[in-house]
Write a structure and sequence with these properties.
284 residues
């Protein structure tokens, strides 16, 4: 039995660039991209061609940014997909490698962010759970200074992107992946959680540490995004290859999310406190 031919569309580096430019991606801007390779269709060159197309659309003065999270470097007591036996937890905590921005792979984000992370010249932020990688002339400005106790708040690349007037591109992914909404969670009352992770000591050894962090919860981001899109004319919709895409400013998304979360989620539980987090009653 013969293998069926792919249905396409056929996507190339050049077609990606043209469709991104038609959507409104501007040369010279900073662009935070959340992506799904599978959604695009049949891509000649795979994730490499996608990154090339994004860089071509942004031009030499533009900066490409992607999330490169590594939430697997977390407390095994909180793992549920899949869990591990409780008797393994102490050994996992004792032997888990510490985060290294040069070698720690991204986790659960797909192949496009991992391709950007390993691209020549890419820079990556320092947070061991919620790092970002960037390519372009403003990469250092965006990723430097990511505080180890600030996953997605004021001392993270998200706040830098907001200040720079950057935009978000949802390239075949939904609002549930929109990290910009998390910045709003740092600006409204939210629980604190205990976050465990391995860290490297000055002597080169690895130890387990627990820090306090703001709880983050993406469970209702799809609804938040739908309301944002309905209420704000800043969201540009279109298609790239077979993918539905959305393009909008980081600042508008954060400002809308601040009001929406305060209205729809006051005092609500935060089931997505992880990666690596235990809820705490203290409030900032």
């Amino acid at each position: 039995m013969s293998t069926p031919l792919p249905t396409g569309p056929l996507v190339t580096r050049g077609s990606l660039t043209a469709e991104l430019r038609a959507l409104g991606v501007r040369p010279g801007e900073a662009l935070l991209v959340h992506s799904s390779l599978r959604s695009l269709g049949w891509v000649s060159g795979g994730p490499v061609a996608v990154v090339q197309g994004l860089l071509d659309a942004l031009g030499p003065d533009g900066t490409l940014v992607v999330p490169t999270q590594s939430g697997d470097l977390s407390d095994p007591a909180l793992w549920s997909r899949p869990p591990v036996p409780e008797e393994w937890w102490p050994a996992i905590r004792a032997t888990m490698p510490a985060y290294d921005p040069l070698v720690t792979p991204s986790h659960g984000l797909g192949v496009i962010p991992e391709t950007v992370r390993t691209w020549p010249g890419a820079l990556r932020s320092a947070h061991p759970h919620t790092s970002f990688a960037a390519l372009g002339p403003r990469a250092a400005e965006i990723v430097d200074g990511h505080a180890p106790d600030c996953r997605l708040g004021e001392r993270s690349p998200l706040a830098r992107l907001e200040a720079l007037g950057a935009r978000v591109l949802l390239l075949g992914s939904g609002y549930d992946t929109c990290t910009s909404f998390h910045l709003a969670e740092y600006r409204i009352p939210a629980p604190l959680v205990e976050v465990g992770r391995p860290v490297r000591t000055e002597g080169g050894a690895t130890r387990w540490e627990v820090v306090m962090e703001v709880a983050i919860d993406s469970d209702r981001f799809d609804q938040l995004g739908a309301d944002f899109e309905r209420d704000r004319p800043v969201v540009v919709r279109g298609r790239v290859g077979a993918a539905d895409v959305r393009l909008f400013p980081v600042a508008d998304a954060v400002a809308y999310a601040e009001r929406w979360l305060a209205l729809h989620r006051p005092g609500a539980p935060f089931p997505d406190a992880a990666p690596g987090a235990r809820r705490h009653r203290t409030r900032p």
